[in-house]
Amino acid sequence: MHDLENNILLIGYGRYGEKIAKFFEKKDIYIIEISQKNLQRARQDGFEKLFLIELEDDEALNHILSQKNFSHIFCALDDEEENVFFTITIKSFDKKVKIVAICESKESERKLKLAGADKVIDTMEGSASKIFHLIEKPAVMEAIEEILFEDEDIDIREIEIPPNSFLEKKHIKDINLKKLYNLILIGLIDKERGDSFVFITKGINHKIDAGDILVIIGYKEDIKRFIKDLKESV
Length: 234
Description:
Oligomer: single chain
Number of strands: 10
Helix content: 25-40%
Distance between the termini: 46 Å
Shape: elongated
Number of helices: 9
Structural class: alpha/beta
Largest sheet: 6 strands, parallel
Order of helices and strands: EHEHEHEHEHEHHEHEEEH
Radius of gyration: 20 Å
Strand content: 15-25%
């Protein structure tokens, strides 16, 4: 668990909200839900600072916001349009409050940013490092697996580059796994430099050698296709 200076407000205790909640002390987190069923699950999980409000009850929302100085507000409802609505409403009350919003598409990401969200996590595009820096450096792989990739069709894999494959001697910035295979490259392990993992977000333009290990995220079928092409190019 991770102690923060101020309180956290989590809006939504669904697929993603439930996973986000576990990273904070129960005493530090307030939860708003518009679903009685989800709120009951949060209560059963041991959370006590719970609020059930109507979607468009601005007065009730503003009352909750005025009770505490929330360091961050997570909009994590399963419905993306509802996250947009809450982001707009909260920003109308307090433009300075930091809002982190969850989405599942580029279109929703654009809407949330326009609505005023300070950070938007696309559950497919979001890299491990976004979560890493966002919630006080939890166990990174646990965060990826538990928050972003609950979908059984999505996997995280370490793939070693075989000798003479089509990627050998190419630089990271020269390949686009997203375009070619619908895969997200998180980072790599350069075997010549040891076993330390380096995030792609560090800005490196590493030359890929045989034996290097790429850490990728994607749908299982796309990963299989990528591995097949790697082997066949040898």
